[in-house]
Write a structure and sequence with these properties.
With 259 residues, this protein is α/β, with parallel strands linked by helices. It has 2 domains: 209 residues, Rossmann fold; 39 residues, no CATH class. The protein is 49% helix and 14% strand. The chain is built from 8 helices and 7 strands. The chain has a 7-stranded parallel β-sheet with strand order 3-2-1-4-5-6-7, with helices on both faces. Helix 1 links the parallel strand 1 and strand 2. The longest helix has 29 residues. 46% of the residues are buried.
Length: 259
């Protein structure tokens, strides 16, 4: 993958940053995206460039704004000469019963977790077709395959990501372009940390009990999935070794879906 170029959305922390680092280690130029402290983002860029001899740029595009998303992709194409790899990872969460779910939160979660992936693919796919090679990896969730209470918007969005993945795979099946989804179980990221706090309020439980009785109760390994493991799966899906793999939704979930 040396010399190829990638956009990874939501990559200033958590799974997205882990994937950006793993791709950089393969010699891939990377466009980071997400919110965060400007100095911290600059430090991440500087370290990745120094460690791997690649180019790393940053876009602060708001994933709720289609115009900014399309501008981000065009910026990457202009800077790198094209986009070879697209990782849709940006996501947020809110926990509430469906009849109490804030309407603005529903709209925001659908926009960031689902619609943004459509817009990035819509904008990046012509570049992949022109270059004759492409890899699209959508970070769905185990909640793209199964449901849990109090997460109606997140689960609707992640099920939508799985469906979008299948459709894009079918449309590009005769091309050297693949589209797959990764469906992690619980990974200890800033998003999950917030979920723990939210679930503690909903269930009236202390934090450690939320982790053991709510978060990991359905994950038989009783351990959080490692960011590095998700990142390496993404790297595999972006490799030539995975050229025959497209339209798949791959759980990495501590045996959650084995039940």
């Amino acid at each position: 993958m040396k010399g190829k170029s990638a956009i990874v959305t939501g990559s200033t922390s958590g799974i997205g940053l882990g994937i950006a680092r793993a791709l950089a280690a393969q010699g891939v130029n990377v466009m980071l995206n997400g919110f965060g402290d400007a100095d911290e983002i600059r430090a991440i860029r500087t370290k990745l460039e120094a460690d791997h001899g690649i180019r790393v740029v940053y876009s602060g595009a708001d994933m709720t704004r289609p115009a900014e998303i399309h501008a981000m992709v065009q910026q990457a194409i202009a800077l790198f000469g094209g986009v070879d790899i697209l990782v849709n990872n940006a996501g947020i969460q809110h926990v509430a019963p469906v009849d109490e779910f804030p309407l603005d939160k529903w709209d925001q979660i659908i926009a960031i977790n689902l619609s943004s992936a459509f817009h990035t693919i819509n904008a990046a796919l012509p570049s992949m077709k022109a270059r004759g090679w492409g890899r699209i990896v959508n970070i769905a969730s185990i909640h793209g395959l199964v449901a849990s209470p109090f997460k109606s918007a997140y689960i609707a969005a992640k099920h939508g990501i799985v469906g979008l993945t299948k459709t894009v795979a079918l449309e590009t099946a005769t091309l050297p372009i693949t589209c797959n989804a990764i469906c992690p179980g619980y990974v200890l990221t800033p998003l999950v940390e917030k979920q723990i706090d939210d679930q503690a309020k909903v269930h009236g439980l202390p934090r450690d009990e939320v982790v053991s009785r709510v978060m990991l109760e359905r994950q038989p390994s009783r351990q959080f999935v490692k960011i590095e493991d998700v990142a390496q799966l993404a790297v595999y899906l972006c490799s030539d070794a995975a050229s025959g793999m497209t339209g798949a939704s791959l759980p990495i979930d501590g045996a959650w879906t084995a039940q």
